[in-house]
Design a protein that fits this description.
Number of helices of chain A: 2
Largest sheet of chain A: 4 strands, antiparallel
Shape of chain B: globular
CATH topology of the largest domain in chain A: Alpha-Beta Plaits
Radius of gyration of chain A: 17 Å
Order of helices and strands of chain A: EHEEHEEEEE
Strand content of chain B: 25-35%
Largest sheet of chain B: 9 strands, antiparallel
Number of strands of chain B: 26
Number of domains of chain B: 2
Oligomer: heterodimer
CATH class of the largest domain in chain A: Alpha Beta
Strand order of the largest sheet of chain A: 2-3-1-4
Helix content of chain A: 10-25%
Largest interface: A-B, 20 and 35 residues
């Protein structure tokens, strides 16, 4: 079993295509949807964690590619600006995944995009606009 | 007395002074004992950096032709109202001031993206701001309206003047209610989803001299990247707090009123903050040098994070309604671990003050003293409730 966190982007024409259904039914994947926005006539976005056999996961990725779903492995929607950050660490207490954490010795705030699920809980906690979402 | 201020300053000028930060001195005292550490180190530097809402700056503008009397009129900087109830050309800009047309919390939680603090940060970042004045005319000041762009250098004087900074100890804030609340202690999640604290702990200026034996009115300090002075006890200063066996206060107590030349300050240590649902504030970097004039001063300056404890307060009900009592006490060391336990529940912790930047303040002050660019001062008078160490009186 392998596990992968992905950001899926659906072009408007794919809104009618039940991609998640196919991922589960045809590729036997566990689909954990962490964040999703779907609006008529706009690009849909979904942050998911897919879990299953490696072979199935690879086939599912090929299926999505075929369908025109853009698959990103890294969250790029959250922009962290280290020059604006004063390292107060307020954001780290509300981050559910540990993507935002405190370096115990230097007391710096660290952002690891690979753990971010774009929940945006950190945004209102930052008084210095050091983190922004473009999801 | 081990050494006098005059002896310390002579060593600073000779380049022979020994300076350590309040963090560095902890290990030294643990290794060598208070007596040896006190003989070895001349000065301990402290630092803090956090949002301090009772901050602002006053300005004197060059007169226009014909002249204008701002006093009694209405003046804004980039739309942010400034206090003009003084003479013709003196203005005070508070960091929490908001433009008249800002929705504030009418759209809840308000974002408070641009207030007085942001004007101050723009000025010290080299940007110009627009002054707009509307007032009444007089025989000696006939002009009634004035609009001009001004940079920091254009003001005759620009002085940071903060009535209350550097709080000695602060509450740990939690939220016992069922909804997210927006406070000056940050965003607090329901059912104790997080606990926020705001102190520099072992680096905090007033926790390293808890009885203010070495500092008082007139003490020269690091302020906002430049130099400043303690000019008065801060507002809400508590002169005689309950203390523990280390002389640390049990609740927020001593505060300082400080001022310094804004023109020498930097956005690294003076930063505009927008606290969601609460308001604008100013992140202030402040550091105080502690002259090690006797062993007790050193014993106090060696305070550790595990020694400092703070009350945990519910900001959904107990704080706004002014109820006494708390949910227990927790140490700075526990808070810095990232998680505390309150009434059996594990609660993640977050800071409002930056320990990282506080350390930068203490190290910068250490560098300035070591390089002979910062001399220590003898306080002119003690803070209320304080007794200056022998040799400083």
């Amino acid at each position: 079993m392998v596990k992968k966190k992905l950001v899926l982007s659906f072009p408007p024409r794919l809104i009618q295509e039940p991609v998640t259904y196919h991922l589960i039914r045809d590729y036997d994947l566990q689909v954990n949807i962490m964040r999703a926005t779907v609006k008529p006539r706009e690009r849909g976005r979904m942050v998911v964690e897919l879990k299953g056999e490696k072979e199935n996961l690879d086939r599912a990725l090929a299926y999505m590619d075929e369908q025109g779903v853009q698959v990103d492995t890294m969250v790029q929607e959250m922009r962290y600006y280290p020059d604006r950050c004063v390292h107060c660490t307020a954001c780290t207490a509300v981050c559910p995944t540990g993507a935002l954490s405190v370096e115990p010795t230097t007391r710096e705030t660290l952002f690891d995009a690979s753990h971010c699920i774009i929940c945006e809980a950190c945004i209102p906690t930052c008084a210095y606009a050091a983190i922004e979402s473009q999801f | 007395m081990i050494r006098s201020i005059e002896e310390i300053n002579a060593k600073i000028k000779a380049g022979k002074v020994v300076v350590a930060t309040a963090e560095e001195v902890i290990g030294l005292v643990a290794d060598k004992g208070v007596g040896a550490a006190a003989r070895q180190v001349d000065v301990v530097t402290t630092g803090t950096f956090g949002p301090m809402c009772s901050s602002g700056a006053y300005f004197n503008i060059g007169q226009s032709t014909p002249k204008i009397k701002c006093g009694g009129g209405k003046v804004t900087f980039n739309g942010v109202p400034v206090y003009a109830g003084w003479a013709a050309a003196d203005l005070y800009l508070g960091c929490t001031a908001m433009p008249d047309d800002d929705p504030r919390n009418a759209v809840y939680p308000g974002l408070f993206k641009y207030g007085g603090a942001h004007v101050i940060e723009e000025l010290i970042s080299g940007k110009k701001v627009r002054l707009e004045a509307k007032t009444y005319g007089t025989d000696c000041y006939p002009r009634k309206e004035y609009s001009v762009e001004l940079g920091l250098a254009d003001f005759n004087s620009a002085v940071l003047f903060n009535p209350r900074n550097a709080y000695q100890l602060y509450n740990v804030a939690v939220n016992l209610s069922q909804r997210t609340i927006y406070t000056y202690m940050g965003v607090l999640k329901p059912r104790m989803g997080n606990a926020n604290y705001s102190t520099a702990g072992a680096l905090s200026p007033l926790l390293n001299d808890p009885r203010q034996r070495t500092l008082g009115l007139g003490t020269r300090i690091f302020l906002g990247g430049g130099e400043g002075y303690v000019v008065w006890p801060g507002t809400q200063h508590v002169a005689s707090p309950a203390r523990d066996e280390r002389d640390l206060p049990l609740s927020p107590s001593a505060t300082l009123a400080v001022m310094g030349d804004l023109k020498a300050m930097s956005p690294r240590f003076l930063r505009a903050a927008s606290l969601a649902g609460y308001g604008a504030s100013l992140g202030v970097g402040l550091g105080i040098p502690i002259p090690i004039i006797d062993e007790q001063v050193m014993a106090h300056a060696a305070v550790r994070d595990q020694d400092i404890t703070m009350p945990i307060i519910d900001y959904s009900e107990a704080y706004p309604l002014g109820r006494s009592g708390n949910l227990g006490r927790v140490s700075m060391a526990d808070l810095m671990s990232g998680q505390i336990e309150v009434e059996g529940k594990k609660v993640p912790t977050g800071g409002l003050a930056s320990r990282h930047r506080a350390r930068e303040v203490a190290l910068e002050l250490k560098t300035r003293i070591s390089e002979g660019r910062f001399l220590l001062t003898r306080p002119v008078a003690p803070l209320p409730g304080a007794e200056l160490a022998e040799g400083l009186v």
